[in-house]
Amino acid sequence: MPWILLTLAGLFEIGWAIGLKYTDGFTKPLPTALTAGSMVISIVLLGLAVKTLPIGTAYAIWTGIGTVGTVMLGIFLFAEPVTAIRMGCITLIVTGILGLKFAA
Questions:
Q1: Considering just the CA atoms, what is the radius of gyration of the chain in Å?
Q2: What is the mean pLDDT of residues 2-24?
Q3: Which residues touch 104 (CB under 8 Å, ≥6 apart)?
Q4: Transmembrane segments in this chain: where (predicted)?
């Protein structure tokens, strides 16, 4: 169950990171409210997951999920560049996430 909570926390982290782009500097009320809600949910789920999981592992995986998801959505939603170096770095992050998951 803590791994599911951690995964959901990472997905909500992606939500708030992408949401920041839509808030237009926190001037748009609905995107701002959704972004703030995603932040709170993400932190609460992370807090529940670390009741059982090691904090270092959980935090690294949480940020890794957020990083990879945000980069991928940035590519699809905002036409951010896709380069071999970017994709190689994403592969390294995913490898690190999997390594931490199986080492925990």
A1: 14
A2: 97
A3: 53, 54, 57
A4: 33-50, 57-78, 84-103
Alpha-carbon span 65 to 62, nearest angstrom? 5
Q: Are 94 and 68 in contact (CB under 8 A)?
A: yes
User: Residue 17, exposed/middle/buried by CB under 10 A (0-12, 13-18, 19+)?
Assistant: buried
What is the residue range of 46's domain?
A: 2-103
For residue 73, what is the enclosing H or E element?
A: helix 55-78
The per-residue pLDDT for range 19-69, each reduced to its tens digit, is 999 999 999 999 999 999 999 999 999 999 999 999 999 999 999 999 999
Domains held by the chain: number? 1
